[in-house]
Amino acid sequence: MKYFLILLLCISPLSLNAANSENEIKAAVLGKLSHFVKYKSQINSDEFIITVFQDATFAKLLKEKYNNKSINHKNVLVKNAHTPKELSSPDLLYIGKVPQEVQYQLIKYAQSNNLLTISEESGFAQRGGIIQLYFVSLKIRFKINLNAAKKSNLKISSSLLSLATIVKGETK
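Predicted structure:
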């Protein structure tokens, strides 16, 4: 599994334009990252719920990619949220481009509900998000905030940690 993740992280599709290529890579990586995260308080549901906050284009791509697929032996359901009030209790909360104050609100909500948070916004992991994605020459990299994962009662595999940059950060 570790070698598959390394191979996936090194893929750089050349036939797509950069923006589409990055979104395709992010979509594939979200599902793979989920296999390396263990919830200490397992959510009893037949569905693995991914909520995308304020990125309708990415939510649509995820719906297409994960239609009739599973993550962690659960059918995938992708939801799109535009306001914090629309959040339920997903397994994974992907946060699009939002102001820092909204990011802090979402991170606090996620920690109190034991959610995995992922974003590609600069500084996300330092502000208390769990996984921050970023690209270098169309290759995906990620930062992980272990303190944030602990606050959300999540355990991240050492295989994944060995490939990530570990950051420290607090929420407000």
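Summary: The beta strands are 37-39, 47-53, 70-71, 74-81, 92-95, 116-119, 131-136, 139-145, 154-156, 165-167.
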